[in-house]
Specification:
By secondary structure, this protein is mainly beta. Helices cover 1% and strands 48% of the residues. Strands 8, 10, 13, 14, 15, 18, 19 and 20 form an 8-stranded mixed sheet that branches.
Length: 294
């Protein structure tokens, strides 16, 4: 998929030098009509018996139309040429959420400090974060009655996610599960589903209730706060060895459970609209990792 929301999509060409000696490779990139590469030609020397990825940004036209497009790369080295093509899609019904990289402030250690993770959502990073609202019910009945706003950003170590959960009857908030690792989804709770690389398998999943109890019980951070209009949740989800690059896309859904109240049915809602259970990777929206913001 091309990210026409920001106008820029990262394109990486994998080049493998099977020779025993270094070789200088020239690349010529061709974009679809109306699109453009910031580096239409690339030249780089690649050591023998190694491979590398050579990248460029593909710029979308302001009036990009839905459809399937093709980019091509011609590599030439030692008097020979090889050609590769790849197709991508522009669709008008794909939910996309930009996720900016938050650079550390001056004098602060370089990683893991974009958000304090105290549930207050008062750090500067949340003003720069990508945000969404308009959560929809999973029973096909339209927008949720109790709305949610979610925000995302990342740094070198963590994907940060914040939820602001509006609640018209905050005195009825349910948080019966008091242990990490328990069935926190039975309470007022929020969930994050992440699908690195859009592979539709091995989806990562985190859940927390309004009291800050979480599942899985270890390996990530969560803090919550009650507010006059509901409650908030602030998460730091470790990236580990995944290390997403600018322009990389992951499948994503952000979900909320509001258990039943007297004379009120339960409400299950999410950002990427679906019907039924939340864990439908083929219905997820797309998280687009962005370039550095300060």
């Amino acid at each position: 998929y091309a990210d026409t929301r920001s106008g820029r999509t990262a394109v990486t060409i994998a080049v493998n030098n099977r020779l025993d000696q270094a070789a200088t490779v020239g690349l010529r990139l061709t974009a679809p009509a109306g699109w453009s590469f910031d580096r239409p030609t690339i030249a780089e020397t690649i050591e023998g018996q190694t491979h590398t990825g050579l990248g460029a940004w593909l710029q979308a036209p302001p009036d990009a139309k839905p459809g399937v497009y093709t980019v091509s790369a011609v590599a030439h080295a030692g008097g020979k040429e090889v050609r590769a093509e790849a197709s991508f899609s522009v669709v008008d019904n794909l939910r996309a959420l930009p996720c900016p990289y938050i650079a550390p402030a001056q004098g602060v250690p370089p990683v893991g400090n974009a958000a304090k993770v105290d549930g207050k959502l008062d750090e500067a990073c949340w003003k720069l974060a990508g945000s969404v609202t308009g959560f929809e019910r999973n029973d096909g009945k339209g927008p949720a009655r109790q709305q949610t706003t979610a925000r995302v950003c990342y740094d070198a170590r963590f994907l940060y996610v914040a939820f602001e959960c509006q609640e018209s009857e905050p005195q009825t908030i349910v948080n019966l599960v008091a242990q990490d690792g328990g069935e926190v989804w039975r309470d007022d709770s929020v969930e994050v589903f992440a699908d690195p690389g859009l592979k539709r398998r091995n989806v990562l999943h985190w859940i927390a209730n309004s009291a800050g109890r979480k599942t899985p019980a270890q390996g990530w951070q969560i803090a919550t706060q009650r507010t006059a209009t509901g409650w908030t949740a602030e998460m730091a989800l470790p990236l580990g060895g995944l290390q997403p690059q600018p322009g990389e896309m992951w499948g994503l859904n952000l979900c909320r459970t509001r258990p039943s109240r007297p004379q009120q049915e339960p409400e299950f809602s999410c950002w990427a609209s679906l019907t039924g259970g939340f864990a439908q990777a083929d219905k997820f929206g797309v998280l687009i990792f962005g370039e550095q913001k300060r």
